[in-house]
Amino acid sequence: ADAAAHIDALCQAVGDQPLAIRMLAARAAGLPLDLLLERLQSGLEVLRTRDVALPDRHKSARACFEISYAHLSESAREVFLRLSVLPDGAGPAVISAVLGSSVWEDAAEELVQASFWRFEARRYRLHPLVRQFALEKLGPARGEAERAAGVGVTRPIKAYAERAKSGQVDPASIQRALDWCEAEWRNLLVCAGFAARAGEWGAVLELSAALFNFWQVRGHWAEAEQLYRLALLAPTQAGNPAQRAMTLNRLGCLAEYQGHVAESEERHREALEAWRALGDSGGEGNALKHLAGLYLKNGQITEAETACQNALELLRRASDIVGEAKAFTFLGNIRRAQKQNAEAEAAYRKSLELSRQSGNRYDEGDALRFLGQIALEEGRHALALESFSSSLAIWRDYRDHRREGLLLTDLARLRASTGDLDEARALAAQAANILAATQDAIALDSARELLRNLGMPAHTNATSAAS
Predict the structure, then answer these.
(1) Nearest residue to 86 via CA among 227, 186, 222
(2) pTM to 2 decimals?
(3) Nearest one of 70, 79, 65 to 107, comparing CA atoms
């Protein structure tokens, strides 16, 4: 089993390149596989053969690359080397940002023709061995290339993040912004590390702030948490207490998303103290708002209500309409826990009004979902269907698969309550399939429990349920 794993790792490390695999096979006769993998990870020297019958370009991977590299123009070499620090290729916007120039197309075309780059689906990619060769060529200049990449990617990410954050642009633009972040996600995380190592803390903060709305919609919670832990070091280095408070808030949100309620409460309390020390009523209100939600999860209804009412007062004072809308959503949740559906519905409708006023479709979707749940509880099926359908359309615009799964679960319950069991089973199975690809284990368990209650196995897929 160990041998097979090492062989797989070796083939992956050379990108399944046939000549490299033949060289590794020959070396494996005299070296342990784990040692061979270690040598391969440290450089290209292991990829060579002593077969004198072969032409020079086939005697080692490095010799093969050197021949092609020698024929590149200076501009192509510069682009090739500087972009090699990125682990996942790059799209046009990232290339321009890292190079600090939009004039690189001729060099890119030359690199594709020389087989140093591959162009596919609007991205330029490097074979693993080619990238390793480029990094060796960079040598001591690698540190500066990484610093430039770490700082450079902040330019496009800020522009794309603004589109994703604002509900005032059309859904297609928001979707394109989020899709771009998804495509460049690995590069963005690596570049944050580059910036931190170079002491470019401003770039770390800009990256972490710009990606807040992305991970809220698309997930990647564990990776985002590592980014924010890194960002938490930045204000300490840069002497920016407001950024520290904001980062604590975001870490609190990430912990809650992952079900770590105690850690989330600790982070939001730290943020609350920081905002109070700064005299920032908006920040204080947002921290209290999140604490209200956590108190509710812990069954501390009185504490939740007090925190939420205080949050609303502070957010109004700060003219933070977006924060106020979300606080009204939390207040609605509290009223439902108190069995006060009329008051809960009023709170959700206020959240809906403020969300639409600010153009925040994300919170609009939440308010609509909760209004649909109240309507379902009270047997107002037509209103529930209208609310759930409107909310589902918003989440599909965002491609927020987690919330899409939640809405499909709600719709399944609605169909079950009206006696349409076949449709309920199909919707519940579809919800379970979607949620299985997210990190929300609680939501997935809920969808699977609903499937079992409807008389279907929890692993049933949407196709079999519909049939």
Answers:
(1) 186
(2) 0.79
(3) 79
